[in-house]
């Protein structure tokens, strides 16, 4: 397998401890069944929203919520099909990671790639790069990170070695093992089509398998979307420094811990029984404004038409709500006309 090394420095250890404490705290929180269903659906729609962003599809969070409920995403090209396939792949992850008989092996990742290509490419297009063909670069900005010294005829053996290493390294912390596998997949780029999407969906599978995603309401795809540039920089650094992945570990573990912070805050808001008490609302904001501020923790920007659709209000009501948030300096605006986007002031 691709040989990589790392140093367990103070930052990594501290963030691992922070992550584990937050994970335990979230699991111990008193969340009723309705709350768990709501949080699980929020994770699914958030993942769908961020994958759409990653492949350049304009999808509102409300559209993403409808998509995870079964409404098909329609585009003029293959990306809509890929998004629908992604929903099925994520459902597969959640249905199978709790089954101890479904051990991590090469067949799992092959199956994920095949699911992502369903109804778009022929079944035989879901294959490993074991001949001389180049990877298709569609929807994949990680291709330049591929280790070009690895011969196609060695790809399958390299992938099997990577998975065997993961399975035989049970004494290493699962988050570190996950990070090593992700880096290996980026460097190996084993599939002819959809390497990036297969890698992040497989990463979600591993995180679920170890209880770090679905059980703790972690939207793992958002993590890859929001940190794409930082991760790519870390992988480039590793590739140019003897595959030293210490920087990649630092960024990956820190971002996961930060996501747990956000998830804990969301759950605390959900479980507060006195949220609708008679106390004066924060800065006299209405329910819609409070809701959009919470959404901004998940989605980076919102257009006025998104607000209209999400809150089911008129254009004038959306204008008044957003203009009020602007005057109170809680959000800022970029662009003009139909390209106007709103975001938190601290972004």
Explained architecture:
- The protein has 347 residues and is an all-alpha fold.
- The protein has 2 domains: 10-270, Orthogonal Bundle (Fic-like fold); 282-344, Orthogonal Bundle (Arc Repressor Mutant, subunit A).
- Helix content is 57%, strand content 2%.
- It contains 14 helices and 2 strands.
- It has a two-stranded antiparallel ribbon with strand order 1-2.
- A hairpin with a 6-residue loop joins strand 1 and strand 2 (341-344).
- The longest helix is centred in the last third of the chain and has 26 residues, at 246-271.
- The protein is globular.
Please describe the structure with a list of short key phrases separated by commas or semicolons.
347 residues, Fic-like fold, Arc Repressor Mutant, subunit A, two-stranded antiparallel sheet, 2 strands, 57% helix
